[in-house]
């Protein structure tokens, strides 16, 4: 918009009644009187240099969403690591090892702990660095700032200071909280989109003070100064109290002069503003909470498992120490050859402490001391029961899983060239356990585009195109009938209905292939192309079109490319109505201060005729009024009130003579609502001159009044005029969701996820809580809960609708649980006009009240608190604001990608991590308990059965890669199957793979494996000759054979656990086994100084002995046979969902028996009362009823059997 053109022709403030109130009586409002704390902020306009020293030095405009900084990283990261119980245990073990209690070398204990903690901290640092980079992208955005002498130049956002004068141009974001000084409009009006703050698409009207309107050009700021005294930083988005001192006068400030950070300038060429709040003082940042430290529930449950394993460790250590104490007390005196005790050493004060402890270790006179010292040694010896390497493996696996999420081509948005991003890999498995999704609406679900699709005029329905819901219902019903052909062959009526449905659906789809006009998908030749003249009630139809063309606040702009007009409207609904009016033949083409010009196409000559409508008053739309009216004088001098609004509001204001079309229109509105369309009713009223004149005097008096009751007076006077209306018709527009959103919500609902969304859809059954009085709220909640319990219709769907003011009461401690119980019983929960903090509180209530996993998804700064509070936060990238992304755990470009993120990656990650942890517990118990058995067998001496290198290699090399491949590559079913059978997702929320039954089952499996490995080997080697010359096996041979059996058993076990193999899994599993033999060979070839008892062990002792190979084979089979039997029994007699699908895919039922495959797919969805499927099912029920009525009137046909 050119500045001069707009400023010369239009004072926009005169158009508004409620949105932009300014007194016209020439009286100046009194400045605010501040009392008490909270109003200490002083801002010197255009003098930022004065804010560099205290006490008026304020924070910079730099923002940070990172968890750490240079100072806090080390302490906070270390704290995070030692929140893990296993790490605490190994810290204790490392301390004991340093003292000297360890049976192993000190470094064998300290090095793994340092490696685990260091690697985890490095990962945290890398992920936080990425957050820092995204923060800097925002901080380095440029804004034009006054540098002096009336010159404006670019400056990064992060360097803005309180008091700076900033110039913002159209479609730019505000870099800080600003005081509006002037705009490109003559009267200081500007339009602001606050979608990032409150999710609303309607543009907000802001106005500058009249005294600052002359500051309308760069040069005018050369000598500009002023002083602002206002409230301190606070999170209240909708309030502001302050005064500005300018030109020796003091003027009051209110929220209509404040431009909030992260909102966007729209429909205005430019504005000037003074920075009031910067950085974390700004209201949007005040609504943020510090970046939380989130831990997954599986990781928390791992701590409980560690407690169980630690209890087991304590138990066997106590058994070992008790056995050692008994041995020391009763048998040590007879073991004279060991010379364990020197009487003088405990009393020799020159000896170091450890020498005294060693002397006391075998003192038969102090069995309790001996037992205690041995207990400390046993805690370290059996430490392999506590899987410290599990944490490292999980960290590696989660990073690799995050890489696969980031590289998923199916979650790549070509339009914005944006990939999915796992901003933290700690919560991958949480994606597979989500129970409730809390979603923002605007920008997240909708693309802020309305399409005019149907209308009802004079009781007649127009518009032949079907909505997405209707099309899907017809296709689904045709599919269902196709599957029932065998049952319906004797019913010719049913067969005809199927053909009709398929034909209609196909025709509709062909129509949609035609090029459409943006905002206009209407199709009906009865009123298109001037044919409406042939319809009855021509005058009513023309009035309907005129209401669309005149009743609005939009501005026309000439499109230089096409020569036509585009409309800058406050809401997408208005834009769609104007496009519809143009296509019907009435084109809104010009607007002046008090006049609207409409170019009407003459239906006979086809020539345009420009008609003029004088705008006398405009009663604009607000969320409270739910209607908009204009009072106009047409070319014939007739006074008309034209009104559009919610049907419930309009119908209440109809006159007795104006209800002629009410019954038919109500039926059409119900049909439109069931088709998923947004509706408005249109009405009018003819006015007499005397009546209007008297009313206008009252209206002007109310509009120019001063005081807190001005808005109430305006509302009362408006109500006096907006009555006795005559109904004209209704509109139905389709709220265009983002690509794939209906299918995504539908699939998520079928997966059993509860979805709380902010939506404007018309609902068949709604529980409205709208009175902000606490006693009334309690009564309404009680009555609503009773209503749901008494409802007998199984298809009834209740929705809970609540606004922000009422929600403040509902979230109080004595009421929030009743509110939550009611919300849980409803199919949908709609929270309107809620603040960012309330979104976070609702999320916290759901998370803590239900104990279930929550996921929050949004795209704006108003969603940050909700995203951070939820167990999993997802930000929408690829849109203008990045605040939600910077606060999120995962970022996707479109809402539709949430389907794949949860149903595919979430499902896989949960099962992979769960199986990986269970397997890790199994293998560590199988390995660790053999040490206990051997120590008991060796007289509780603390002797390990295995060489130190074996112990180090077990978790690091020989069993690590297979378990990582399990965590990264395992798939119970493919991605396509996950999407086709959404009910599979419920395995995660039900926690079928990581419950205590499964965990103790794997612990039992590990216990059984350890018993078989130790005792079978002892039986094989105890008295049998091992070599051909007759010698029996020594400790090295037995220990190495046992270790070989462990390697084979645990690797075969993981092979049985996997259901999806690639060459990588085979390489890792069988390569690990081969690596063990290769290590034995190389280790045995080393000098005895290094290999000790392992020198030439494989070549000379084990490999030539048939007993070694036989023992390995028998023990491995014995260890894995019970698990093989268990999974075979489970698949045959108690199969899980994925077992059945695996078998169907194996036998190619999806190709050979498509009917069976389709039937099973239809079963594999949770029953839902929300989303696309719920609407489709409701529409199918309606179509069935219509078809039944249609064909019940036909004579029944009798089919005679063949003679």
From TrEMBL:
It comes from the Eukaryota. This is Uncharacterized protein.
């Amino acid at each position: 918009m050119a500045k001069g053109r707009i400023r010369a022709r239009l004072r926009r403030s005169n158009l508004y009644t409620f949105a932009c109130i300014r007194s016209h009586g020439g009286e100046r409002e009194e400045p605010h009187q501040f009392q008490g704390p909270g109003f200490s902020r002083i801002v010197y306009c255009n003098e930022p240099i004065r804010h560099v020293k205290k006490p008026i030095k304020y924070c910079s405009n730099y923002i940070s969403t990172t968890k750490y900084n240079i100072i806090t990283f080390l302490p906070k990261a270390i704290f995070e690591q030692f929140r893990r119980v296993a790490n605490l245990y190994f810290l204790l073990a490392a301390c004991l090892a340093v003292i000297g209690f360890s049976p192993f070398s000190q470094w064998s204990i300290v090095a793994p702990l340092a490696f685990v903690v260091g690697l985890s901290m490095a990962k945290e640092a890398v992920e936080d660095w990425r957050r820092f980079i995204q923060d800097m992208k925002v901080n380095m955005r440029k804004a034009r700032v006054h540098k002096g002498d009336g010159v404006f130049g670019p400056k990064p956002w992060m360097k803005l200071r309180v008091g700076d004068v900033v110039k913002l141009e159209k479609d730019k974001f505000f870099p800080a909280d600003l005081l509006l000084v002037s705009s490109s409009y003559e009267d200081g009006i500007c339009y602001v989109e606050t979608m990032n703050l409150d999710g609303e698409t309607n543009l907000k009207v802001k106005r500058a003070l009249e005294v600052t309107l002359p500051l309308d050009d760069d040069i005018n700021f050369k000598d500009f100064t002023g002083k602002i005294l206002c409230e301190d930083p606070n999170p209240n988005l909708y309030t502001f109290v302050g005064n500005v001192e300018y030109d020796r006068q003091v003027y009051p400030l209110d929220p209509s002069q404040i431009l909030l950070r992260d909102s966007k300038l729209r429909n205005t060429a430019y504005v000037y503003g003074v920075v009031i709040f910067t950085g974390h003082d700004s209201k949007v940042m005040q609504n943020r909470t510090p970046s939380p430290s989130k831990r997954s529930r599986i990781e928390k449950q791992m701590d409980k498992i560690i407690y169980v394993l630690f209890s087991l460790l304590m138990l066997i250590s106590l058994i070992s120490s008790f056995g050692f104490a008994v041995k020391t007390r009763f048998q040590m005196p007879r073991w004279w050859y060991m010379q364990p005790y020197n009487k003088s050493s405990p009393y020799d004060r020159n000896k170091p402490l450890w020498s005294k402890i060693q002397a006391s270790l075998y003192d038969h006179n102090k069995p309790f001391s001996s037992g205690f010292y041995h207990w400390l040694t046993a805690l370290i010896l059996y430490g392999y029961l506590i899987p410290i390497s599990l944490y490292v493996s999980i960290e590696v696996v989660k990073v690799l899983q995050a890489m696969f999420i980031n590289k998923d081509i199916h979650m790549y948005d070509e339009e914005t060239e944006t990939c999915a991003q796992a901003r933290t890999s700690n919560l991958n498995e949480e994606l597979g356990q989500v129970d409730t999704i809390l979603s923002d609406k605007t920008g997240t679900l909708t693309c802020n585009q309305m399409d005019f699709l149907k209308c009802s005029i004079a009781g007649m329905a127009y518009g032949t195109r079907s909505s997405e819901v209707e099309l899907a219902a017809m296709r689904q019903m045709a599919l269902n009938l196709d599957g029932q052909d065998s049952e319906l062959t004797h019913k010719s009526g049913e067969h005809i209905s199927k053909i009709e449905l398929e034909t209609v659906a196909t025709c509709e789809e062909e129509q949609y292939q035609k090029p459409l006009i943006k905002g206009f998908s209407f199709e009906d030749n009865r009123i298109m192309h001037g044919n409406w003249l042939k319809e009855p009630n021509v005058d009513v139809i023309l009035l309907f079109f005129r209401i669309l063309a005149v009743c609005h606040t939009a501005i026309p702009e000439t499109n230089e490319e096409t020569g036509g007009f585009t409309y800058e409207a406050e809401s997408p609904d208005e834009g769609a109505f104007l496009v519809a009016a143009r296509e019907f033949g009435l084109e809104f083409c010009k607007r002046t201060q008090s006049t609207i010009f409409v170019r009407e196409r003459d239906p006979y000559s086809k020539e345009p005729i420009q008609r003029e409508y004088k705008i006398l008053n405009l009663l604009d739309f607000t969320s409270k009024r739910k209607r908009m009216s204009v009072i106009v004088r047409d070319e014939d001098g007739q006074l008309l009130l034209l009104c559009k609004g919610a049907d419930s509001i309009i119908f209440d204001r109809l006159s007795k003579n104006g209800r002629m079309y009410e019954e038919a229109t109500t039926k059409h509105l119900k049909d439109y609502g069931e088709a998923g369309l947004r509706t408005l009713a249109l009405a009018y009223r003819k006015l007499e001159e005397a009546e209007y004149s008297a009313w206008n005097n009252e209206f002007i008096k109310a509009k120019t009044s001063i005081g807190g009751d001005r808005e109430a007076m305006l509302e009362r006077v408006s109500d006096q005029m907006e009555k006795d209306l005559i109904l004209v018709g209704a509109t139905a527009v389709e709220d265009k969701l983002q690509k794939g959103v209906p299918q995504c919500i539908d699939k998520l609902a079928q997966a059993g996820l509860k979805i709380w969304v902010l939506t404007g859809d018309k609902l068949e059954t709604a529980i409205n809580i709208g009175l902000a009085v606490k006693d009334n709220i309690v009564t309404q909640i009680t009555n609503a809960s009773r209503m749901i319990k008494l409802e007998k219709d199984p298809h009834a769907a209740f929705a809970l609708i609540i606004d922000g003011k009422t929600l403040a009461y509902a979230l109080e401690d004595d009421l929030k649980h009743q509110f939550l119980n009611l919300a849980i019983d409803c199919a949908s929960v709609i929270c309107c006009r809620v603040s960012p903090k309330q979104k976070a509180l609702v999320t916290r209530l759901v998370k803590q009240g239900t104990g279930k996993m929550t996921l929050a998804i949004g795209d704006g700064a108003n969603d940050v608190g909700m995203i951070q509070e939820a167990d999993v936060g997802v930000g929408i990238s690829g849109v203008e604001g990045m605040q939600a992304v910077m606060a999120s755990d995962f970022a996707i470009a479109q809402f539709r990608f949430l389907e794949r993120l949860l149903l595919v990656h979430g499902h896989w990650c949960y099962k992979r991590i769960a199986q990986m942890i269970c397997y890790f517990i199994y293998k560590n118990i199988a390995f660790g308990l053999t040490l206990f058995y051997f120590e008991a067998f060796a007289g509780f001496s603390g002797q390990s059965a295995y060489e130190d290198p074996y112990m180090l290699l077990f978790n690091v090399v020989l069993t690590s890669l297979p378990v990582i491949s399990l965590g990264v590559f395992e798939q119970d079913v493919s991605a396509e199957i996950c999407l086709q059978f959404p009910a599979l997702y419920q395995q995660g929320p039900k926690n079928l793979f990581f419950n205590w039954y499964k965990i103790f089952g794997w612990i039992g499996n590990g216990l059984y494996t350890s018993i078989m490995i130790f005792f079978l080997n002892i039986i094989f080697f105890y008295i049998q000759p091992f070599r051909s010359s007759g010698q029996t096996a020594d400790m090295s041979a037995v220990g190495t054979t046992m270790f070989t059996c462990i390697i084979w058993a645990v690797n075969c076990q993981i092979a049985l656990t996997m259901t999806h193999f690639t060459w990588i899994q085979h390489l890792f599993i069988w390569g690990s086994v081969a690596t063990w033999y290769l290590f034995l060979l190389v280790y045995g070839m080393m000098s005895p100084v290094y290999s000790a008892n392992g020198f030439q062990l494989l070549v000379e002792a084990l490999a030539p002995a048939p007993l070694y190979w036989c023992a390995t084979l028998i023990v491995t089979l014995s260890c894995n046979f019970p698990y093989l039997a268990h999974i075979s029994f489970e698949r045959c007699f108690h199969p899980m969902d994925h077992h059945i699908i695996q078998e169907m895919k194996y036998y190619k039922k999806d190709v050979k028996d498509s009917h069976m495959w389709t039937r099973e797919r239809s079963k594999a969805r949770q029953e839902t009362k929300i989303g696309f499927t719920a609407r489709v099912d409701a529409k199918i029920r309606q179509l069935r009823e219509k078809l039944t009525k249609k064909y019940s009137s036909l004579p029944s046909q009798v089919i005679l059997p063949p003679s």
